[in-house]
Design a protein that fits this description.
649 residues, alpha+beta, 6-stranded antiparallel barrel, 4-stranded antiparallel β-sheet, 10 helices, 32% strand
Length: 649
Amino acid sequence: MDAELRQSLIGQVLSGAQGVRYELGELVGEGRSGWVFKTTSEVLGATTAVKVYRPGLVDGGTALLRFAREANVLSRLLASLPERRGLAHVIDHGTIESPRGALPCLVREYLPGQNLARVIAAHGGFGLPAARTRRVMGHVARALFALHEAGGVHRDLKPSHVLIAQERGQETARITDGFVTTLGPQDPLDPPNLLYEAPESFGQLAGPIGPEADVYSFAAVLYELLCGTAAFAPKPGEAKPKALLRLMTGDRPQLGRVRATLPAELRDRPDLVAALDREIGRATSTNPIHRHGSIRELWLALEPLLREAVRPTASGGSTPEEPVSFDSVFPRSSEGARLAAAMPVPPPSAAPVAAPMPVWELLGPAIAGERLRAAMVVEEGRAIMALGTRGLYRLVHGAWSLAPLPAGIDVRAVRGLSRLPSGEVLLFGDAGLCAALSPRGGLRRITLPEREITLLAAHADERGIVLVGERASRPGGVAIFLPNEGAPTMLAAPDTARFAGVTRTSSGHGIAVGTQGTLVEISERGARDVPWGRTGHLYAIAAGPGGVAYAVGSGGHALRVEPTHGGAVATLESVQTTRDLVSVAVDPTTGGAWAVGADARLLERQEGGWIRVPLDPSVTSALLLVWPRTPRITVVAEDGSALCCYAGR
């Protein structure tokens, strides 16, 4: 009967609430809740799409009135958004007569292309490349954020409700359907979908539906994109009540269990897979209060992991696209207004001025086919050591030479380098890797309290070594203290995201930074959170004179962290870039701070904020190291380009 009804609708005319008539043409989509037809309208002069809801969803005139109310609310909500990228615009609504009674219809813009469900099916049970997943889900995250900020909830996010289209030569994702704003689970327009819909929409946990429901669905869709299988796929022959019980009480989906179908760039990165699983598991928690508080919080936790997976390697690849920004969704969102009111900023009179172009000298050329992960200046500026995909490199007298790592050290497991006071080079990374490499090539293994950790940063001084990172088995930052005298100690901070940077101030305080805006004072006794707006990730921190430290991170974030009697206080400073900043350093002579990051960004801190310093135009790669030593500034890029300039030249 549905097939006959569907066919009978072609050629019918819908009279919209705005008085516009739409003639239903070609069927372009079909789902459990209805059909989508391409339509023409003489008044609009453009092709539109009309979704006609199935008669089984309409329970008399009450349902039609409720639908009209919802459609009006939705139209006003979407029209109020200054930024609607990623959302299919709703144009009109109405009802159409059929052999089975009046059926509600929603008119939206027509978007040629295919939906995400078909894209997933075309991959034959395998996941999409991480770069494409990151792009598509970034658009979806931005669209949901805009919807939530305006007071709406989608409630029915699934692959078939995400349209993939080409706009201005670029692939984009648009959310369609759903957009439920006031309907509760006791009176739903659509029946529940056990594959993607949050448990509070049905069953014993039925309750109010908020943005957390979209967080759940978003994570379920992301999981399917990465492995090709639905996160909560029913088992063959499984009854619906049993499937519902398994969804509410069973294990959360884990990419680590379906490694064979993951994209190639994730199969050999168990650290990234484990981190993704932690975020997906939290986002798909049965209880909404245990999920991420917003779609923005979830995406800020996921995006760096996907970006790390698509970083170019020696075997090829391309630079990841810029991450989706939430900042322009509204001129000033409610969250942004609250944060702006809470964070002190420099007065207008202290606005920084543009820096003149310095004269740069090339210290070393780019290394063909290589992408460096870390670098440091050694021998008081006479040489540079760097970590790449093929081993350790050394730059002396204008040329790079490869220095293979000692036996037993897998370059793929090394995450970073640090110089020890003894002159040794500290190597650290995956599976608790920690070793000191002597200038003559000898290797000294350093025993840690635990091995199932990933070390991401280190700080070494005359007091000892502080290492930070995350546990591989469960979420939370980890810090390990290796004093020169005494036994090592470990601090586990389960309430924080992973630590990405660490320093120790002149007053002896350890400070660690990390994803989701983590900024904490740390010691062997515990961790203390340093409040700030937490509007982005923090990737690096460096200590300056007087106990002050500077932290930098995603989107050009820069913080000044100062000691007080009640603990450290952070101040967000103005910055002349919106690119990610990944490294920061302080000149020990002048106390001046410098930062570097994506797209060859180099910034110097002045009293009015951080000003951008022009780099040699030949350098376009991301910068990973800045080494300020008056009167010289040295920078190293990911492609191996190394340059320096002198003050006053």
